[in-house]
Amino acid sequence: MEKKSKYKIVSVLLSGPYNKTFDYIISENCSDKIGQLVVVPFRNREIIGIIFKKGLDNLPIEKLKKVKFVVNLPLISKIYMDFIDFFSDWNCVDKGNVLKLIISPFDKKTLQNLGHKNYKPVKFEQSKLKAQNEIKELNQDQKYASKKILGGFKSKSSRCFLLDGVAGSGKTETYFEAVKYCIQNNKQALILLPEIGLTSDWELRFQKSFGFKALVWHSGITKSRKKKIWLSALFEKSLVVVGARSALFLPFKNLGLIVIDEEHDSSFKQDEGIKYHARDMSVYLASKKQIPIVLSSATPSIETLFNVKTKKFSKLNLFSRATGSSLPEIKIIDLNKSPPKKDSWLSEVMINELKKRFRKNEQSLIFLNRRGYSALTLCRKCGYRVQCKNCNSWLVEHKKSNTYLCHHCGFKKLLSKKCENCNETEMVSCGPGVEKITEEIQTIFPTAIVENISSDSIKNLDDFNKTIEKISLGNVNIIVGTQILAKGFDFPKLNFVGIVDGDVGLYGGDLRSSEKCFQLLSQVSGRAGRHIKNEKGLVFLQTYYPGNSVIKSIKKMDRKMFFKEELSYRKSAFMPPFSRLISIILSSKSEKLLNEFSFNLLEKSPKYNEISVLGPAPAPLNFVRGRYRMRFLVRSSKNINLQNIVRNWIGLISIPGSIRLSVDVEPHNFM
Questions:
Q1: 168 and which of 203, 463, 530, 587 could share a cystine (Cβ 3.0–4.6 Å)?
Q2: Does residue 456 contact residue 370 with C-beta atoms inside 8 Å?
Q3: What's residue 131's pLDDT?
Q4: Residue-wise over 568-603: b if at least 16 C-beta within 10 A, else e?
Q5: Looking at 105-246, which runs of residues are DSSP E strands?
Q6: pLDDT at residue 158, rounded to an integer
Q7: What percentage of the chain carries pLDDT values higher than 90?
Q8: Are 477 and 358 in contact (CB under 8 A)?
Q9: How many other C-beta atoms can be found within 10 angstroms of the C-beta atom of residue 648?
């Protein structure tokens, strides 16, 4: 061992399931600053880590291992060190797993090569900002809203803005003014979108406005491209990134603005692996960086509207459509009084309106939030239902691909006319999916050009974008689609929307089922008539529950009424946003072991008057991917550090290797 003076002691956070730091020695001529990426030996392998804090000087260096090498990159800023701490504490996850999200494009070998080659990021071309007269002229509401957001770059008061605008009100063009400010002032801007399918339309609008392309980040881009964008975020002073929720973890050097487009969308909540809400984490990051954040939506979440009500966020309204068109008229079709004919899912009223629009060469959208051909297939003879071998759920018939598919685990098998139970050929499809609706429409309109759009259509993004362009140009007569069409798309020729089943998701064991249903139906209704001047777009909504408060609110386009009723319900039930919820999900291949562990955990549960522990109870889907599942739900007032209590509780018991335990703070999925 060399002399002590040639080494310094650093405390390193390792990427992976580690929540504490480990001390190492590092040569005194190497950087020992907080935020320095390093590769270190750990047990029998080498792991990427980051110098998280200074080591203790009184440790015996002869007992410490030496840092393998220092990565030749700029420091990750201290704000991201604080972000790792906050993210870990809030979401009850290990700090090292948060670091893993930040350095996700890289492995040890790549970082070593970076160090040796002193690699610099590829500079992406940015032409000069287009002349102002080439950017869309804003109306008075848009100008007022953009002025307030621009004030957030200098203001020391609240910098979190809800941009609340009706569908088609020009929310994107409004926050583009803030993006322009960032470009002109050499700052970085991050825009998060909920769906991969939305990025192409957004990219086109951005390029038309600014004359260059934003950097696009999502799961569909290559790893080499991700590495270049990651390095650009670290090196470049000015750039614009648009992407899915994971773009939040890019190590921005000079971030000046965050935008969460469609902030209400449940896609911002990650329910697999590390569970977190990208919107909430973005609000924290923006507050630490003291930069504006814009939450944009036509149907804001209850939590965001509550934060406006309690003066935490500032609300900016866009009351009318930017095109000057009116909001659509919504008509309710009571299926109790006007049921569809046998083997049909569209009422006569809906079909007649479609015929009228087709004769006038107007585009129509038929909406059903159910993928596939049929949700359930059963045998008429013995009652057997085709189900998944890995989950306690029915397989969904997908006629187009000739398969039964599980939407939970991905298991699939070929369609068969024979019953697996009794071997009779009496199999029948029950309930419609978008494929069945498409089939019905093609039978009624044999000469029409019909497109079926769902998440199953996005396997090839290029083909999906071509289809969206085809629709936008008016080269499709009737579109049949799921919720993906309710988000952000602007189809100029679309004047009529027909909602096949307004009751999907209306009732269920989900705290947010009413909210999600209201948002979805409002969003899809907002696609109609965005570009017609002298008449309103039209929406037909089929339902068996016309008296339901959500359906009534949709018909009147009265969000205030819905918000008031939903908040009243949440308050009386002591549910978010008036309380805090944490879900604990346990799973195991052994049902017996899972039950034993669950009740052992219950025995050690916290005993406080202010905290309720509900469960353990089998999850509604209690067998998924070959594992049995149990749930706890923990509730408290918002002034209690419930995360800390839950972490301490879990720490009281040894978790067997065969048991998986995950924590979901403010859960959105209760299945």
A1: 530
A2: no
A3: 43
A4: eebeeeebbbebbbbbbbbbbeeeeebbebbeebee
A5: 160-165, 188-192, 215-217, 239-243
A6: 64
A7: 62
A8: yes
A9: 11
Positions of the chain with pLDDT under 70? 1-5, 115-131, 133-135, 156-158, 508-509
Residue type, 407: H
| pLDDT score of 357 | 94
CA distance 461 to 404: 23
In angstroms, rounded to a whole number, what is the distance separating the alpha carbons of residues 135 and 139? 13
Quote the CA–CA distance of 523 and 521 in Å, as a whole number.
Answer: 5
- CA–CA separation, 296 and 155 (whole Å): 20
- Cα separation, 496 vs 362, in Å, equals 8
609 phi and psi angles, rounded to 5 deg: -60, -30
Helix (H, G, I), strand (E, B) or coil at 311: coil
Give phi and psi for 378, each to the nearest 5.
-135, 165
Provide long-range contacts, Cβ within 8 A and 24+ apart, for 355-363: 355/444, 355/445, 357/495, 357/496, 358/445, 358/448, 358/477, 358/478, 361/477, 362/493, 362/495, 362/496, 363/471, 363/474, 363/476, 363/477, 363/478, 363/479, 363/491, 363/493, 363/494, 363/495, 363/496
- Residue length of the chain: 671
| Residue 608 one-letter amino acid | Y
CA-CA-CA-CA torsion for 537, 539, 540, 545, nearest 10 degrees? Answer: -150
Q: Measure Cα distances from 367 to 270, 435, 450, 523, 607 in Å.
A: 25, 11, 13, 11, 48
CA 601 remoteness from chain centre? 31
Compute, in degrees rounded to 10, the torsion defined by CA atoms 585, 588, 593, 597: -20
The pTM of this model reads 0.92
The DSSP bridge pattern shows strands 37-42 and 45-54 to be antiparallel
